[in-house]
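Morning. Coffee machine broken again, so started the prediction first thing and wrote up yesterday's gels while waiting. Chain of 113 residues, entered below exactly as on the submission form.
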Amino acid sequence: MTKADVIDEVSRLAELTRKDSEVIVETIFDSIVRSLRVGDKIEIRGFGSFRTRQRKPRVGRNPKTGDRVEVPAKKIPFFKPSKELKDLVNNAAVEPVAVTPPAPATPSVPPTQ
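Came back before lunch.
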């Protein structure tokens, strides 16, 4: 699912214009990014939480040349799903899905008599 798909879904379910839905989705994403930039943790009950993790500086290797490369310390965004989300995803995976068998193939050569 892409951001455009999310916007379309919000538009359809909330019966809003696509433009209004786009503003809502963009505002939510911008709020999450702004909070992560300043080091805040975002918790959405029943969905999960977003926060940043600090990575230490390290020495890496250039895969092409094999040279040593200093990789600086950095913050990375991290998402931890809630127990409810994990349960929903796992229960949906085990529910049987009705599959329609394909139609039998018709021969391309007429039968000989």
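The first helix runs from residue 3 to 14. Going to sketch it on the whiteboard this afternoon.
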